[in-house]
């Protein structure tokens, strides 16, 4: 999918395939969430070796040993057209600083009190 051979990716940082259109906030949120010992899922735009791009649904989990995060594992699948259509304008707005939303655990959510209330209600519903 990326156009790279396995030997070109071994021992390389993952940001080798990071597309510049991805909001920095998405990766900051991913690393913060994972370091807290929680899973992270989101739609990610990656860059192919030839400069083109592809979209994936990234599901990342921390590997925990003796109560400490010791590594990370990520499984990526092809993102659907609907997922891409939903996040692409939001990511562009985030990059341009004209979005009233933020990324929280891989999801684009409202900021402020209304967003906190909605997240709290969802957490109660899933409990």
TrEMBL record:
Signal peptide: none annotated. It is found in: Cell inner membrane. InterPro entries: PAC, PAS, PAS-like_dom_sf, PAS_fold_3. CDD domains: PAS (cd00130). One of its GO terms (biological process) is chemotaxis. The keyword Zinc-finger does not apply. Its main location: membrane. One of its GO terms (cellular component) is plasma membrane. The keyword Lipoprotein does not apply. It holds the Pfam family PAS_3. It comes from the Bacteria. SMART domains: PAC (SM00086). Keywords: Cell inner membrane, Cell membrane, Chemotaxis, Membrane, Methylation, Receptor, Transmembrane, Transmembrane helix. Residues 1-74 form the PAS fold-3 domain. NCBIfam families: sensory_box. This is Aerotaxis receptor. The lineage of its organism: Bacteria, Pseudomonadati, Pseudomonadota, Gammaproteobacteria, Enterobacterales.
């Amino acid at each position: 999918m990326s156009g790279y051979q396995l030997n070109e990716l071994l021992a390389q940082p993952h940001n080798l395939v990071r597309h510049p259109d991805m909001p920095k906030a998405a990766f900051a949120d991913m690393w913060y969430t994972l370091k807290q010992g929680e899973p992270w899922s989101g739609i990610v735009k990656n860059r192919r070796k030839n400069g083109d791009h592809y979209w994936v649904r990234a599901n990342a989990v921390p590997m925990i040993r003796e109560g400490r995060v010791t590594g990370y594992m990520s499984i990526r699948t092809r993102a659907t057209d609907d997922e891409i259509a939903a996040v692409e304008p939001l990511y562009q707005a985030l990059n341009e600083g004209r979005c009233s939303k933020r990324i929280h655990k891989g999801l684009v959510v409202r900021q402020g009190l209304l967003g906190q209330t909605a997240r709290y209600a969802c957490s109660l519903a899933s409990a």
